[in-house]
Amino acid sequence: MPPTVPGPRGPHAYAEVTRRSHGLRESRDFQEFHAFYVDALGWPLTRGPAGAPPRLATGVAFDVLGLPADAGLAVLGKAASGPVALSADRTRMWFLVAAGAAEEVPGLLDWLEWGGIALDLDALGAGCGVEAPAPPLRHARAVPGAAAWLRPPVALALPALRLCDGGVPGGGTGTATGTGGSGGGAPDLVRLVDTAAAECHRVRIARGHARTIAADAHRQPLAFS
Q1: pLDDT at residue 154, rounded to an integer
Q2: Distance from chain centroid for Cα 171
Q3: What gap in Å lies between CA 178 and CA 142, rounded to an integer?
């Protein structure tokens, strides 16, 4: 009997194979994320929505200062910091600070005379989270369009609030005092927040100026020779 050639697979069969392939890849990716964040660092990690990367909870092992990427780039060159990540859409930078620091940021901004100024500066603490950047491991596969580490969490010295003369700047609670688990030499949260606020303000003014120029150019009548 001559061999028979199987007929072409229908679209549903291909969809099922594709779904299983994506599921296996997502499972392997999550294992790599879990090995780095949970097993190595002890950070809480949760699965993201279907097809989305895992997420890191803030307020447990660390808090996050979020600011525009162009402002964050300037901060990187001016202030000591802990780990820093870039969001998947490349518009935001996340500066990791000691757990509890997010609660101190509003008071610090007031104390530093930044209170009441729109800065586009986020302080993410308990109940919040960020997308987990791809682990900075050699064997980890690159994840196109995913969040990425700019300063990987190699040394766990997270910026924390340092008590001065028995008081907390800005009248905060002092819950983020200490070294963030480093045992000493953690970056100063006050200096980081002040620098981040200044750069956020600079970026906001620059963007407003650019919009004004663009609006003026749009209103000008065209010159015909």
Answers
A1: 78
A2: 27
A3: 35
